[in-house]
């Protein structure tokens, strides 16, 4: 005869509690899985929306740099310097917000940079392209050409005196392409007369090193 398995009431209650706990855990897991699935779906939707917005923004920005575009020469770069004193003095946004001073069509114009061009990447002497809103959108870098002149005196980090080809002198700006600390009296540089700015350093050649700046007062009798 087979033995009949008997379970005490205590064991029965314990097993029943374990089953209830297991069922509760399963239901909690199901809820967590459903919540995770909903979060994932929301994340996918948000990512898709963001991707579409980025694509629309990219297309809009691409139109910002579509030809035709005007060009301008940068004379000065001014970062944002707003202070409480500026506000108290009633200064205008054109005075305290970041901006560029440029030469555009022979006129001095104050403009801003578009989000496409961080103002920190722009230096005096650069050529920039402008969109329809007259904002700088692209930097073309420095133009290393102009009249060849000689440095006569370095005044400060922004200005120097040069000897022009017509034997006159001029106070010129120093472009962002040059390190003022490396400029020396007698250096040969290029000078852009449109913006009164020294734009590049002309390397000395061996032939230039053999040329005397002054003809010595020596006769054959002295030799």
TrEMBL record:
Any Pfam family: Prot_ATP_ID_OB_C
GO CC, alphabetical: proteasome complex
Keywords linked to the UniProt accession: Coiled coil, Proteasome
Keyword Lyase: no
InterPro entries named in the record: NA-bd_OB-fold, Prot_ATP_ID_OB_2nd, Prot_ATP_ID_OB_N
Coiled-coil residue windows: 12-39
Gene3D superfamilies assigned: Nucleic acid-binding proteins (2.40.50.140)
Record-annotated Proteasomal ATPase N-terminal OB domain positions: 97-146
Organism superkingdom: Bacteria
Domain Proteasomal ATPase second OB positions: 148-203
Protein name: Proteasome ATPase
Organism: Candidatus Rothia avistercoris
